[in-house]
What we know:
four-stranded parallel β-sheet, Rossmann fold, 2 domains, single chain, five-stranded parallel β-sheet, binds phosphoric acid mono(formamide)ester, alpha/beta, 310 residues
Amino acid sequence: xxxxxxxxxxxxxxxxxxxxxERARYFEEHPNHKILDGKVVATLFFEPSTRTRLSFETAVxxxxxxxxxxxxxxxxxxxxxxxxxxxxxxxxxxxxxxIMRHYLEGAAxxxxxxxxxxxxxxxxxxxxxxxxxxxxLYSISKTQxxxxxxxxxxxxDLKYGRTVHSLLMAMRYFNPTFHFVACDELKMPHEYKEFxxxxxxxxxxxxxxxxxxxxxxxxLYITRVxxxxxxxxxxxxxxxxxxxxxxxxxxxxKDNLKVLHPLPRVNEIDRDVDDNPKAYYFEQARNGLYARQxxxxxxxxxxxxxxxxx
Length: 310
Ligand code: CP
């Protein structure tokens, strides 16, 4: 495995998280710093994406590199039966970095085992989405002025939601208090609650999305119920609209509260929230560009500060 690969948020220490946030801040001020001259990056998306793929590709383009890849596996030879192993080994012949999203949990880790080219996991099934977590952490740090001692409420699909799994793991360094709001079918899996216990992370579980929970929060992190993760569509129909944030529910929220969502949203945030200054999800998605520029440089072993001195 190339040690610059990013498969899980677990690959990044507290110090490195803080350093990456500083680098994201640098890129927000200098988004067009041309430091990837001669570098080619592959984006291999076996699952649909808007933000992750386009922000990674924009990041490479703004840094002066080139992008190859596919946004639909049906247009690649995997549709002819080529294995993931063969696809990764082939693409490694052409590029300096592979950014991949796959519907199977563990696919990115497997890819690191068949190539020396660095891999960035852009989402593997219901498992991990570490680059989303870096942009979430950057967004939280920007809006709250810190990462430590925050109360974060996670709402919606906590079972299959890879973004909440990665965020929970990353926050272990920063003494958070979590509220988990989900129905029985989509509650936070046992392994992540065990993780909280092991790291002394405080959490409570709720079925009601109450104003009491909202008013106690610094961050309200809403997630979509993901139809694509259900094998039984009737189960999805039963739970898809259980939780919707409406503007009126924010009336007594803390001044510093920000509403985050990895997007895309369906019905879980009413459109009447969009103009509330507490709504931060579109800015959050923009922060993805800067956080991903920092992650691309990490993966390629490029120190932006040294490059800036030249
Ligand atoms: N947040 C996120 O992963 O969005 P996309 O699925 O559009 O990439």
